[in-house]
From TrEMBL:
Name of the protein: Exodeoxyribonuclease 7 small subunit
Name of the coding gene: xseB
Name of one Pfam family that matches: Exonuc_VII_S
The keyword Hydrolase is annotated on this UniProt entry: yes
Annotated InterPro entries: Exonuc_VII_S (IPR003761), Exonuc_VII_ssu_sf (IPR037004)
Keyword hit for Cytoplasm: yes
EC number: 3.1.11.6
Annotated localization: Cytoplasm
GO molecular function ontology, one term from the record: exodeoxyribonuclease VII activity
Family that this chain belongs to: Belongs to the XseB family.
Description of how the protein assembles with itself and partners: Heterooligomer composed of large and small subunits.
Species name: Streptomyces albidocamelliae
Protein backbone atom coordinates (compact mmCIF):
# COMPACT_ATOMS: atom_id res chain seq x y z
CA UNK A 1 0.00 0.00 0.00
CA UNK A 2 3.00 2.30 0.28
CA UNK A 3 5.26 3.68 -2.42
CA UNK A 4 4.82 6.02 -5.31
CA UNK A 5 1.57 6.06 -7.21
CA UNK A 6 1.92 4.91 -10.78
CA UNK A 7 1.91 8.12 -12.83
CA UNK A 8 0.22 6.27 -15.69
CA UNK A 9 -3.00 5.87 -13.71
CA UNK A 10 -5.98 7.38 -15.45
CA UNK A 11 -8.14 9.83 -13.57
CA UNK A 12 -10.85 7.19 -13.24
CA UNK A 13 -8.44 4.55 -11.90
CA UNK A 14 -6.98 6.95 -9.32
CA UNK A 15 -10.45 8.16 -8.30
CA UNK A 16 -11.81 4.63 -7.92
CA UNK A 17 -8.85 3.53 -5.83
CA UNK A 18 -9.16 6.69 -3.72
CA UNK A 19 -12.82 5.87 -3.07
CA UNK A 20 -11.77 2.41 -1.90
CA UNK A 21 -9.07 3.85 0.36
CA UNK A 22 -11.58 6.22 1.96
CA UNK A 23 -14.08 3.38 2.39
CA UNK A 24 -11.48 1.26 4.18
CA UNK A 25 -10.43 4.13 6.44
CA UNK A 26 -14.02 4.95 7.34
CA UNK A 27 -14.79 1.28 8.04
CA UNK A 28 -12.06 1.17 10.65
CA UNK A 29 -10.66 -2.07 11.98
CA UNK A 30 -7.16 -1.41 10.69
CA UNK A 31 -4.02 -1.01 12.70
CA UNK A 32 -2.43 2.40 13.11
CA UNK A 33 0.30 1.41 10.64
CA UNK A 34 -2.27 0.23 8.08
CA UNK A 35 -4.31 3.40 8.54
CA UNK A 36 -1.24 5.57 8.00
CA UNK A 37 -0.31 3.62 4.86
CA UNK A 38 -3.86 4.00 3.54
CA UNK A 39 -3.85 7.71 4.30
CA UNK A 40 -0.50 8.17 2.50
CA UNK A 41 -1.82 6.24 -0.50
CA UNK A 42 -4.95 8.39 -0.49
CA UNK A 43 -2.86 11.57 -0.50
CA UNK A 44 -0.86 10.34 -3.50
CA UNK A 45 -4.03 9.32 -5.35
CA UNK A 46 -5.59 12.71 -4.61
CA UNK A 47 -2.52 14.37 -6.16
CA UNK A 48 -2.92 12.28 -9.30
CA UNK A 49 -6.60 13.26 -9.53
CA UNK A 50 -5.74 16.92 -8.93
CA UNK A 51 -3.13 16.87 -11.74
CA UNK A 52 -5.65 15.34 -14.14
CA UNK A 53 -8.28 17.92 -13.22
CA UNK A 54 -5.82 20.82 -13.50
CA UNK A 55 -4.80 19.54 -16.93
CA UNK A 56 -8.41 19.31 -18.02
CA UNK A 57 -9.05 22.85 -16.75
CA UNK A 58 -6.04 24.15 -18.70
CA UNK A 59 -7.26 22.46 -21.88
CA UNK A 60 -10.74 23.94 -21.45
CA UNK A 61 -9.35 27.40 -20.75
CA UNK A 62 -7.13 27.18 -23.85
CA UNK A 63 -10.05 26.04 -26.01
CA UNK A 64 -12.26 28.85 -24.71
CA UNK A 65 -9.52 31.44 -25.25
CA UNK A 66 -9.00 30.19 -28.80
CA UNK A 67 -12.73 30.35 -29.45
CA UNK A 68 -12.87 33.90 -28.13
CA UNK A 69 -9.93 35.02 -30.27
CA UNK A 70 -11.51 33.45 -33.36
CA UNK A 71 -14.74 35.27 -32.57
CA UNK A 72 -12.90 38.60 -32.33
CA UNK A 73 -11.18 37.97 -35.68
CA UNK A 74 -14.51 37.57 -37.47
CA UNK A 75 -16.05 40.78 -36.12
Amino acid sequence: MTGKVDETLSYEQARDELVEVVRRLEAGGTTLEESLALWERGEELAKVCRRWLEGARARLDAALAEEESEGEDTE
